[in-house]
Sequence to fold (317 residues):
Amino acid sequence: MKNKRIFKDFQASQMRLNLYTSPLLAFAFVFIGEFVAYTLYGISLLALIGLARNFGETGQAFAAFLQTLLQSLTDKTSDFRLILELLSFGFVLNTVFRWTRKVEKRPIRTLGFYRENFFSNLLKGFGLGLALFLLTLLGLVALGQYRFESIHLIPYSLAFVIFTIPFWILQGTTEEVVARAWLLPQLASRTNLKLAVLISSLFFTLLHAGNSGLTPLSLVNLFLFGVAMALYLLKTDTVWSVAGIHGAWNFAQGNLCGILVSGQSSGTSIMKFTPQGNQGWLSGGSFGIEGSIMTSLVLLLLILYLVYQLKKENERM
Fold:
């Protein structure tokens, strides 16, 4: 499998790290990007508030509006906070891009951003992500673990939900680049591919270790999702496909169905599904569907299918 283009292109890197430093640097990418993002958000809002107060009553009203936005950053259900949180992933992605260009001295496309069929790969991934999530949700609804509560087809809800799609794709792209497209080749260059997949999946799991509602089963599911995305990256040999899956999975949970995304609220949604009963291992509890045994089953089936496909591909070579 190391004959994949994403591994071959990594050979151009002028900075190869070992099994210990590469995951640490990946954590640093996330920390630096988010620190820069939220620092800029705070400084920009405070500067605009101070400037607006100098322009009479209209300026005072605008300053009050900005103050409300600033306060909403502490509200976990705020739509404004959601957009800024998702936008912050762009700063993380930019950090990886800068490292790749300036330190490793290789093009950004070597992270799996290949132009060939990029849009179709993104759409296929997005469609698969929606299908995987809806399959999981329907299974839980059939078992009585989730109930459809309401639907909101007002203009604001529809506009906001559609508006979030590119931001969810940005979020999915960023996590896939850090945990898979950048980290996986680094690890694979120092060890065998199986261990590289396991370490990168463990890294992805630890990225979410601070989320609320975390359970042992949700940690297992995060790890399984990491393995599935690593295998799908190997199958498609492009980051666009896994970015689509990841973005669609989170979008469908949060703003399409109104379910917690890894324990986090996503604000306005078109539909609202709520967990039923007290069997957290089945419904996912306060972590959302990603904490459910149904998610484990769906991800395991996907992993088995991808292992089968990759084995067949390897035999043909």
In short: The two ends are 10 Å apart (CA to CA). The mean pLDDT is 92.
